[in-house]
Amino acid sequence: MANGVGCVYLVGAGPGDPELLTLKAARLLRSADVVVFDRLVSPEVLAKVPSGVARISVGKQPSHHPVCQDEINLLLVRLAQKNRQVVRLKGGDPFIFGRGSEEAMELARHGVPFEVVPGITAAQGCAASLKVPLTHRGKASGVRYVTGHCRQNLDLDFDWRGLADPDTTLVVYMGRANIAEIAERLMEHGLPVDLPALVVCNGTTARQQHLLTSLGRVARDVADFRFDGPVLFVIGNVASLAKSMELHNATSHDIVASALA
After folding, report:
1. Active site residue 38
2. Is 131 labeled as catalytic in the residue annotation?
3. Architecture of the domain spanning 122-258
4. pTM
5. Angle between the 179-188 and 218-225 helix axes, to the nearest 10 degrees?
6. Do 156 and 150 meet the contact criterion of CB atoms below 8 Å apart?
7. 250, pLDDT greater than 60
8. Topology adopted by domain 2-117
């Protein structure tokens, strides 16, 4: 901490299970002066923060942002300028739909030292918790991550034709509110109505629930089951493997339904 300026660590908290934290992330949590955390950071991970460390919640929910991004950026700058070691804790990976890059740019603009500590992103963690691969020979030769909502609630403006690739697994983050439109547009551009779709809520935690359904039914099923927590969608042929892995999944208490025959 040179010249009285601390350091900000943009740390990925992983998908929820604290055992999926990296060794570096766990070490930084133990040595932090203050932890600034998002809504998607699980209670289990927050429990790893020592009791004497200051915690600041800046969590945002859809259409409800009590602390806007500009304020979060300035908060990190101010804390570092007070010679604090700051852990900016983000669910998953800070540079995958985490707006960590915006915070990094603001820190750089003010000359604040920072590091990026990657985390296991939700797509990897949720799929692995159900023993479902994101790529699999004969089912998916690639994978794409997309966000299910746009800034300031603008209309979804995606390359739907490119996304509707039957050989690619599509993982949709933060898509619960728009999953009906997403599914409809994908089917309009060629994906079959019976394409498997896997819904995972509170992935990798003791509260995990999942639902194996189809692209044509996913919006209706999600509304019916009223999942309580962050939801991730895995759309593609690999999702069908959730059923074949079911008998071998020791943590499979969380299966709530299957809409696939």
Report:
1. yes
2. no
3. 2-Layer Sandwich (3.30)
4. 0.88
5. 170
6. yes
7. no
8. Cobalt-precorrin-4 Transmethylase; domain 1 (3.40.1010)
